[in-house]
UniProtKB/TrEMBL annotation, chains A, B:
Protein name: Fur family ferric uptake transcriptional regulator
Binding-site residues for Zn(2+), renumbered to this chain: 81, 84, 121, 124
Biological classification of the source: Bacteria, Pseudomonadati, Thermodesulfobacteriota, Desulfobulbia, Desulfobulbales
One GO-annotated biological process of the protein: regulation of secondary metabolite biosynthetic process
A Pfam family: FUR
Keywords per UniProt: DNA-binding, Iron, Metal-binding, Repressor, Transcription, Transcription regulation, Zinc
Organism of this sequence: Desulfoprunum benzoelyticum
Co-factor binding comment: Binds 1 Mn(2+) or Fe(2+) ion per subunit. Binds 1 zinc ion per subunit.
PANTHER family, alphabetized: FERRIC UPTAKE REGULATION PROTEIN, ZINC UPTAKE REGULATION PROTEIN
Swiss-Prot/TrEMBL cofactor(s): Mn(2+); Fe(2+); Zn(2+)
Binding site for Fe cation: 77
Single GO molecular function: transcription cis-regulatory region binding
Family listed: Belongs to the Fur family.
Length: 138, 138
DNA sequence: TTAAGTGCAAAAATTTTGCATTCTT
DNA sequence: AAGAATGCAAAATTTTTGCACTTAA
């Protein structure tokens, strides 16, 4: 089965790249729909599946219900905000992690790993501080 | 809201513990249903939610569609088989990982992390070897 | 007794699929 | 042309919710 570059596929890729972030299928759908109004969500799912199988994009299964897709396929890890669910990249020394990991792998052939941090992003921290102040002043 | 120990809740906990593994809601449902045939899947979900909020069990969001639940709430990490989707514990030095992680956290307050390995479990390796041999002999 | 918990059925949320039609190559 | 890809609607999967009834404390 050979691949074809359709309008939909191209714009899905472009928009994911342009976003510079980790979009869920329906977020991407909303964006691409502004350009191709008759786009179907199924097309987005089908393309994301195909493109991630080809490693042209990465499929993330981070916290939260929905899967997210990343234009950046390089090995890197993520941190997600437990309050607003945004996802950011986090830079760290992957080799060191691999070294630590080499230990108790119980007969598995390890093909990869995913290190995912959870935390509260700067914006949500600010919001929470404001809320705190409000309550204190009441 | 105070908690009550119902029959359902108790058996859900016991069966999860007895399994010694990381069950999805519906796997647990099947097991508990053998004991309480009129059990509802909704009850399983509600209990797993409540129990994981109380940290009596842990909710895992590992690879694959469904969430999984673990009787073991201690800090430990997981490895899952990309072929059969089973999940096993993996022992490693969490402090070392934290040290590596301290680096590029971009303003986030880190509340935790999840390190999840992917690989092929011993059983699936065996199966794959058998398949390979079969094909070679044909 | 009372309000937490349950079963059931219906809904919500996310993802996948069948099929006729439209495109890329 | 051929068959890959699409749109649409319907289905599948996983999880949540409303509500009347049951049960633990």
């Amino acid at each position: 089965m050979q691949l074809r570059m359709t309008n939909q596929r191209e714009i899905i890729l472009t928009e994911l790249k342009k976003s510079g972030s980790h979009l869920s299928a329906d977020e991407l759908y909303e964006r691409v729909r502004r350009i191709i109004p008759r786009l179907s969500l199924a097309t987005v799912y089908r393309n994301l599946e195909i493109l991630s199988n080809l490693h042209l994009i990465a499929k993330l299964e981070v916290g939260g219900r929905q899967k997210r897709f990343d234009y950046d396929v390089s090995d890197h890890d993520h941190i997600y905000c437990i309050v607003c669910h945004r996802v950011d990249n986090i830079e760290l020394n992957r080799e060191q992690v691999s070294t630590v990991a080499a230990e108790g792998r119980q007969g598995y052939t390890v093909t990869g790993y995913r290190l995912e941090f959870a935390g509260i992003c700067p914006e949500c921290q600010k919001k929470m501080n404001k809320e705190m102040n409000k309550e204190t002043n009441e």
